[in-house]
Amino acid sequence: MSHHNTIFAQLLKFLPRHEFETLAKQHHEGGALRTTSRWSQFVALTLGQLAGRQSLRDIEANMSAQSQRLYHLGTRGISRSSLSRLNEQQPYSLYEALFAKLYARCQCHSPKHAFRFKNPLYSLDASLIDLSLRVFPWAHYALGKAAMKLHVGLDHAGLLPAFATITDGKIADIEIGRTLQFTKGSIVVFDKGYVDYRWFKELHHRGIFFVTRIRSNAIWRVIERRNVDTKTGLTSDQTIELTGVKPQKLGLPRLRRVGYRDPETGKHYEFLTNQFRLSAKTIAEIYKQRWQIELFFKWIKQNLKIKSFVGQSKNAILTQIWIALCTYCKRPATPLSLRYNITA
User: Fold this and answer.
1) Cα distance between residue 87 and residue 48, in whole Å
2) Residue 44, φ and ψ in degrees, nearest 5
3) How far apart are CA 33 and CA 30, in angstroms?
4) How far apart are CA 156 and CA 280, in angstroms?
5) pLDDT tens readout for residues 86-106
6) Can you give the residue ranges of every domain in the chain?
7) What is the pLDDT of residues 145-194, one digit of tens each?
8) Are strands 220-225 and 209-213 parallel, antiparallel or unpaired?
9) Looking at the whole model, is its pTM more than 0.85?
10) What SS3 state is found at 252?
11) What percent of the residues of the chain are helix, what percent strand, and what percent coil, each to the nearest 5?
12) Could you say which DSSP state residue 140 is in?
């Protein structure tokens, strides 16, 4: 009888086995594995992600039911005890490195973002992953709750997570934002949680553009006003100087303030940027595209297993989350559909 590859096998082929084994050797602790392998762990947990398995026993039973197909996946059945031991003892850093390799591969084939400008465009945000404090006491967050936080920099070329970091829930968004390295000319969009004038100055000197919302308590004076087409929703386009004590002490350069009123909701927004070459309408549309990262978090929480976990240690949780992100990179098509026709 002829063999036909399953869809799952085709997804795994996106990752060459020899590259995985090279990474597995680099991220291995302890003695050699005798009865199982990191590849078997990866296949089992990826299957658990795609099939929505609820526990180690569920994953074990699902693989046993498909035992005749495991040979063609380069693996064999794995017991829940072996899988649990791997999740607990072998470092999650293997899948963090694997995620970086998959992103680099996807980036070569990803479509461009929806704007006419050629600058790379990224959105920054973070989302809490709720945990049970009774089961995960090491992840205490606040008010009797436990959580970890997933920080993501979404590349709008293909809507891929270019940067991803998993931290304790107490870590502020801006702490991770400061560590990210963007190429010169990139445009980074983020909400008020990342507003930090010292970081703004650093980004500006590195040739990186940012688009964010101005704080309600910010103090500024207008240096120059430009005419806007109010029919497009724009209310202002100004060059401003922040006159607060901290911006003045830091020597923050002059910035651009763009006002925009959403025609559907009537809500007024004020954007702050160091990008003066693009039109004011494009600045507003850039911030509107930040919603893509909200859709990203919504999609992975609805479709992947990052809300219920099959282990209790920190290493097991991180292993499962990183494999979920690797699974997202191997998806056959982008699940995020919110696109705009940009003409500005």
Assistant:
1) 14
2) -65, -45
3) 9
4) 20
5) 999 999 999 999 999 999 888
6) 7-103+308-329, 191-289
7) 999 999 999 999 989 999 999 999 999 999 999 999 999 999 999 999 99
8) unpaired
9) yes
10) coil
11) 40, 20, 40
12) E
